[in-house]
Amino acid sequence: MRKHFILSLLLFTLAVCLQGCSDDDKAPVDANDNFVTSVAFTVSNKTYDAVIENNTITITVPYTVSLKDATVEFIYTPSAKILPDPATVRDWDNERVFRVTSYNGDENQYTYRVIKDDIRQEGDVTLKNASEIAAFAESGVTVVKGNLIIGTDEGEAIESITSLSKLKQVEGNIVIKNSYKGTDLTGLDKVTSIGGLQVGSVDSFSKSLLHQVSLKSLTTITGDLIVCNNETQWVMAESLTTVGGNVVIRSSALQSIQMDKLSRVTGSYDIQSAVDENGDGQLELGGKMVALSFPELLFVGGTLSANYLAALKSIRLEKLQTAGAVLFKTLPLPFEKINLPAIKTVEGDLNISSSTVYHPIGSSIEGNEVLTSFDGFDKLERVGGTLTFSYFTEATKVPDVSKISLGGYCLDHMEKISSVFDFSKTVFEKQGGKSCEIKLSYTPITRIIGRKTMDCELNLDHIDISKGIPALENIEIIDGFTLYTDRDTRSEQRTDLVFNFKKVIHNISINARPEKPPHYSFPNLEEVQGSFWLFDAWAVSFVNLYSNFSAPRLTSVGGQFFIAKMGSLWQSLDNVDLGSLKTVGCADHIEYYDGILGLKDAPTFSVTLSHPNGGNLELKSLERVGGRGMRVGIYYVNKGITGLSCQKLKKVDGKLTITGSMETNSAWWDDQLKSLDFPSISEVGSVSIEYFTVLKDFKTFAPLFTNSTLPDGNWRVAGCGYNPDYNAMKAGKYAQP
Predict the structure, then answer these.
(1) How many CB atoms lie within 10 A of CB 376?
(2) In which region does residue 117 sit, left (phi positive, over 0), alpha (psi from -120 to 50) or beta (all else)?
(3) Whole-model pTM above 0.85?
(4) What are phi and psi of 666, to 5 degrees?
(5) Any alpha helices (H) in 601-676, and if so which ranges?
(6) CA nearest to 645, candidates 624, 605, 621, 618
(7) In the predicted model, is pLDDT for residue 15 greater than 70?
């Protein structure tokens, strides 16, 4: 009995085991899988495959394609279950979630998303007429990969482009041709990015009737925005933030520019409303733009300029920090206020100037009398070019330059500005090897405070010298110096002009127009590496109008050295103190001031003298004159100069000219000079001595003939008491028998 029970139990256990093995054999091989492997949609015989990544199913179709009722192939693990069942879904245009459950019960979740893509048109698109615009609109293109050209120069008129409202992006330029007759750009409202916009050009303005240029969705321009059309009144790009090229807006009808979000312009920004009424190229101010404001503008890589704006009253650039240059050169007479509170760096010029009006009656020039101060330059650190303020005749204050690095500085017709200028802490930068310049023109000056070494040129233009030149404090070495004075009719007595420079790196140019001739004194000057020009250019009487020139320590002038009074042949310097001068014109490069006193090819060293007290003129240290040579003009008054001595002069590279008049009429010839003393002369290009009626002895030039250093034809004597020719000198007949 017991054996039968055990046997039955064993048989039952074996049956259970066999049944278990049978159930395992029925489970699918993918019982643990719960994946979606592919999804594809077919619409109008076109199939679109989805991308499955990171449990996201993404299908991309053109925005014109609807997936509602599309034929769908949705493949997932065969043994799994999916909810919702793709076979029951009809609306595939919206996002949803699918849950895939494996045979063994594990769940996997997928997110389904639809991307409605743009329709792209490769290459340029040219729409010449209304029918082509309609056909293009029907295509549904949203992205043009090239240029979009609307219209032609002289073709069929296009009245509207409103049907282009599907456009979002043009990678090239949008070009508006003359045949477009719409007054605005409605139809491009959804465009967010373009390569550029071109409505005309600087050389050829558009003739379309485009009153308003508005691209309200535009955020980015990778190239240029150019609007050159005298019909355009408003330019609006409210969402624009960056321009990768230039902005050029030129219209004589301009009223407003709205770019409130613009922060960066890689190129230049040029605004003009110039009017050429007579067609002669003489531009006048135009337009009705009252305010210029870019509240978010931080950077302009090129030049920011706004000019010829007749109605402009204010400029506000609250955030502008950096610009390649800033040129507001023709601000109108009613202009009231400028504010650049954040500006730090201007790589080139910063020019703020008023336009002017010339009044023929009285020959006066009118400038701006409204603006009285320049606000918002407190953070300015550097102007790589020239900082200019001009023709604001009522302005009493300009920005302090003591903490600014400058490439140059100019004040012109700033009659109410302080007469003391302090440059002692200003840093001057040289641009491309060119010297910086401080130019003060038609501006009252009493003192200029500098440093011992000024790395700039100083130009004082139309300066009142009735009480002497402005005090130039602390300055010993300077790159260059220019003085041009107004005609002074107020001085009742002679003015002494004293210049305390020790060294000038480039040129000195003094053009004085005194009523009563001054004495010119350079007590400390030792070297001028460039040229030295002095023109005493205005005196109204011929009686006792003489000036002294004194530079007792000057040893060298590298370029041309020209000293003369101008205005009458009778006017000249009465005496010159150049006792230490050794060399003139020995620099590698000499800059010449040609045409002086009608002299063509003016010599390197020239001085025009008289000596009302008589006596001998000495250039006792002079050793060499290079370049074109040397000219001494001696015109007597009263006793005059009786002798000329250059005891150490050895070499004159060009021509040596000694003349007693500039007239061939003998009535004007000198009858005072009797002797010439050049004992060391050994080399000269040529010699010309003329118009000394009592000069009869030329023995001092004998070495030129005994050593045969002077060629035949290079010796001339005329209008003298004795006129030996070359052969006579060669024969030793140096003096009148």
Answers:
(1) 19
(2) beta
(3) no
(4) -65, -15
(5) none
(6) 618
(7) no
Residues 6+ apart with CB under 8 A from 338: 314, 315, 328, 331, 352, 371, 374, 375, 376
In this prediction, what percent of the chain has a pLDDT beyond 70?
A: 89
DSSP code at position 701: G
What CA–CA distance (Å, rounded) separates 435 from 720?
47
| List of E strands, 413-493 | 420-422, 427-428, 436-441, 447-449, 453-463, 471-473, 477-485
Mean pLDDT of 68-85: 93
| 690 strand-pairing partners | 659, 718
Confidence tier at 22 by pLDDT (50, 70, 90) = very low
Mean pLDDT of the chain: 89
The span from the CA of 524 to the CA of 499, in Å, is: 8
DSSP string across 7-35: HHHHHHHHHHHHHHHHHHHHS-TTTT---
Sole residue written with tokens 């489970």:
27
Question: What is the phi/psi pair of residue 3, to 5°?
Answer: -65, -35
pLDDT 10s digits, 585-609: 999 999 998 766 556 688 999 887 7
The enclosing H or E element of 276 equals none
Over the range 324-363, which residues count as b (16 or more CB within 10 Å of their CB) and which as e? Answer: bbbbbbbbbbebebbbbebbebbbbbbbbbbbeeeeeeee
595 Cβ partners below 8 Å, 6+ apart?
A: 602
In the predicted structure, residue 469 carries a pLDDT above the cut 90: no
**92 alpha-carbon distance from chain centroid:** 59
Which pLDDT tens digit goes with each residue over 679-727?
Answer: 999 999 999 999 999 999 999 999 999 998 999 999 999 999 999 999 9
CA dist 92 → 114, 173, 430 (Å): 8, 37, 69
Question: Residue 716, Cβ neighbours under 10 Å: how many?
Answer: 15
Whether 12 has a pLDDT exceeding 60, the answer reads no
Rg of the chain's alpha carbons, rounded to an integer?
44
pLDDT at 118 over 50: yes
Residue 611 has a pLDDT of 67
Closest residue by Cα to residue 144 from 188, 113, 100: 188
Q: pLDDT class for 614, splitting at 50, 70, 90?
A: low
3-state secondary structure at position 727: helix
Q: What percentage of the chain exceeds 90 in pLDDT? A: 70
Look at residue 638 in the predicted model and tell me its pLDDT: 58
Instruction: Identify any residues that bridge with 584 across adjacent strands, giving them in sequence order.
Output: 557, 625
List the structure tokens of 713.
Answer: 């034809």
- pLDDT (mean) for 193-207: 95
Residue 50 in this model has a pLDDT that exceeds 80: yes
> How is the chain split among helix, strand and coil, in percent rounded to 5?
10, 40, 50
For residues 233 and 91, the model is more confident at 233
Scanning the structure block, which residue is given the tokens 């003998």? 666
Q: Is there a contact between 641 and 616 (Cβ–Cβ < 8 Å)?
A: yes
Q: How far is it, in rounded angstroms, from Cα 54 to Cα 108? A: 11
What amino acid occupies position 428? F
What 3-state class would DSSP assign to 498? Answer: strand
Residue 491's Cβ-count burial label (10 Å; 0-12, 13-18, 19+) is middle
Contact 499, 469 (CB under 8 A): yes
Position 33 pLDDT exceeds 70: yes
For 679-712, b/e burial (b = at least 16 CB within 10 A) is eebeebebbbbbbbbbbbebebbebbbeeeebee
Dihedral sign, Cα of residue 641, residue 643, residue 644, residue 648: negative
Determine the average pLDDT of the residues in 129-147.
Answer: 93
Whole-angstrom distance, CA of residue 724 vs CA of residue 687: 12
